[in-house]
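tokens incoming
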């Protein structure tokens, strides 16, 4: 029986027990007196062979079982595929370009430059195609600021030309005939000048007095403009387009009218000696 069970998977483990039992009974039969020894000897031999076969087959079956389980676990792990990321239904966020970003990319940016002095002087300009110039003057005679090119010739930008005290903000580089390199200052009193990027200009104000520069970021519309001064009143809009002249108003003295306004981003440059209003829409 042990010899037969030794060849059957799983049941072979019981064959080991029966083989051991057969060997014990065979040995008892061999040593017992008055009993035939041939049968006992044969049973002992067969039980020994069965024990050996049972052990070998049990080891083989165990190894096969372990290998099968290991392969099953490996296959199960390999079969698990990480789910692919589903494409997002949300539209990608649009980049927001501010008027300041537009101004920096269109006209250039740099650290502001501030200088003070008395009388005539020359100030080196930063490496930018356009900039804002804020100036003050406390003299009583002519005060003028103009932009010069590399050969010290005028670029066509006359920023300030007044008599006596002055305080205001202007811009250069929009319609210049050459790249500005220096500012020429003509003065009889104390002055202060700050040169800053176009992006430093504030948002368009509805009213003010004197020279000013603003950033506009609205839609194309109309602008109702007034002025109560006595000298030249000029309003221009710079969009960065090569073919855009942008001259909205050019009058002497008081003014009241409505003009077309291009969509932003753009720069609004106001030259005035009096109070003004600027109403969009």
């Amino acid at each position: 029986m042990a010899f037969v069970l030794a060849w059957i998977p799983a049941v072979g483990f019981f064959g080991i027990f029966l083989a051991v039992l057969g060997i014990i009974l065979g040995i008892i039969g061999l040593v017992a007196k008055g009993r035939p020894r041939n049968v006992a000897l044969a049973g002992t031999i067969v039980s020994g062979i069965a024990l050996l076969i049972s052990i070998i087959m049990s080891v083989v079956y165990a190894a096969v079982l372990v290998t099968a389980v290991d392969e099953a676990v490996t296959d199960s792990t390999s079969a698990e595929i990480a789910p692919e990321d589903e494409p997002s239904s949300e539209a990608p966020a649009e980049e927001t370009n501010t008027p300041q970003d537009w101004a920096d990319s269109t006209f250039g940016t740099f650290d502001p430059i501030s200088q003070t002095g008395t009388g005539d002087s020359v100030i080196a300009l930063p490496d930018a195609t356009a900039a804002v110039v804020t100036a003050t003057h406390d003299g009583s005679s002519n005060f003028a600021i103009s932009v010069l090119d590399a050969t010290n010739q005028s670029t066509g930008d006359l920023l300030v030309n007044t008599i006596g005290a002055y305080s205001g903000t202007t811009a250069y580089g929009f319609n210049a005939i050459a790249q500005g390199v220096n500012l020429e200052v003509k003065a009889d009193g104390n002055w202060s000048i700050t040169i800053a990027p176009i992006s430093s200009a504030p948002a368009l104000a509805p009213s003010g007095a004197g020279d000013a520069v603003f950033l506009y970021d609205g839609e194309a519309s109309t602008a109702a403009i007034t002025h109560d001064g006595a000298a030249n009143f000029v309003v221009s809009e710079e969009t960065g387009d090569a073919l855009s002249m942008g001259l909205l108003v050019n009058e002497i003295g008081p003014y009241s009218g409505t003009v077309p306004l291009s969509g932003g981003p753009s720069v609004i440059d106001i030259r005035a000696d009096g109070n003004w209003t600027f109403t969009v829409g």
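note: The chain has four helices and 16 strands.
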